[in-house]
Amino acid sequence: MQRRPRFHITGPLTRAAAHAAGFTDRHLQQPGVLHLSRDTYLPVSMAGDARARLAAVLLTAPPQAVASHRTAAALWGVEIPLEDRDDRRVDVIVAAAGRAESRRDRRIHRVALEDDEVVNREGLPVTAPARTWRDLAGVLQPAALLAVTDQVLARWCTRADLERQLARRPTGRGCARAQEVLPVADPRAESPMESVLRWVVQEAGLPAPQLQYVVRDGAGGFLGRADLAWPEQRLLVEFDGDVHRERDVFVSDTRRQNRLVGAGWTVLRFTSSDVLGRPDEVVAEIRRALR
């Protein structure tokens, strides 16, 4: 009797393709196989790969489906803060006509797309960066949208590109949010949570800070660089992400802070627990320092 080949899934696969290769549903129930939806599968090792999840969804999506929204952002390397990290559904835009529905592995969006708003990214159809930004404006809160806008401006688009995209769709969901956030955006921001902190400052009506401000001593020597600065008040504000807990970084931060304080600067440092858990107190501390 001919021996059936060993089942080993190395990429996205449909149930029909597995059956055509001589395998059964029992093979698809192995621990190393992730069941994405009613007829789509993926190796568990690829569960966190946005590109692989998109490729799997496209196997059973309508022919002209295009990656959009959060999935497009992931393919462009844009990080979205304040998001549910357990939600790995793939966002795709499909034609208005048709029977495609959202499932546990995909969110279906029926919105119009222009030809120049779709590009090929790593072999997959995806909305262009400016269009991705405009779509995200309809689903993200302002702080997260500012973080996205900062990253898009730093890597993929000019401010004029985003203004043109907004002019193309001047109404509809997210329009007012995009108009509010875009003037505040700055490509010099170095982390998404730094952008969120800046939005907290903006919403509180505090004076706009300077970004990535370089501090020098009286002889022009370098003392340090700060995320946010109000030079006239000699105030520096830093966002400390996880990397700042590493020993070498912590030691370097401490020495730099001592130099800055010794030179007459006030240095305030905040973490994500501060920015997200007690934003009012963060604002109050900055406001007191500015006075």
Low-confidence stretches: none
Mean pLDDT: 92
**Radius of gyration of CA atoms, rounded to a whole number:** 24 Å
Intertermini distance: 86 Å
Return the structural class.
alpha+beta
**What share of residues is helical?**
25-40%
SSE arrangement, N to C:
EHHEEHEHEEEEHHHHHEEEHEHH
* Order of strands in the sheet with most strands: 9-10-11-12
Q: How large is the count of helical segments?
A: 12
What is the count of structural domains? 3
Number of extended strands: 12
Assembly classification: single chain
Notes on the protein architecture:
- The protein is 38% helix and 19% strand.
- The longest helix is centred in the C-terminal third of the chain and has 16 residues.
- The N and C termini lie far apart (86 Å).
- A hairpin with a 2-residue loop joins strand 7 and strand 8.
- Helix 4 packs antiparallel against helix 5, helix 5 packs antiparallel against helix 6 and helix 5 crosses helix 7.
- The chain folds into 3 domains: 34 residues, no CATH class; 135 residues, no CATH class; 99 residues, Endonuclease, Chain A (3-Layer(aba) Sandwich).
- 32% of the residues are buried.
- The strands form 4 sheets. Strands 9-10-11-12 form a 4-stranded mixed sheet. A 3-stranded antiparallel sheet has the order 1-3-2.
- It is of the alpha+beta class.
Set down the secondary structure blueprint:
Blueprint (H helix, E strand, L loop, with lengths): L12 E2 H6 L4 H4 L4 E5 L2 E4 L6 H9 L7 E2 L1 H7 L14 E4 L12 E4 L8 E4 L2 E4 L1 H9 L4 H14 L3 H10 L6 H7 L10 H12 L6 E7 L5 E9 L4 E5 L7 H16 L3 E5 L1 H6 L1 H12 L1
Parallel strand pairs: 5-6, 11-12
Antiparallel strand pairs: 1-3, 2-3, 4-5, 7-8, 9-10, 10-11
Helix pairs in contact: 4-5, 5-6, 5-7, 6-8, 6-9
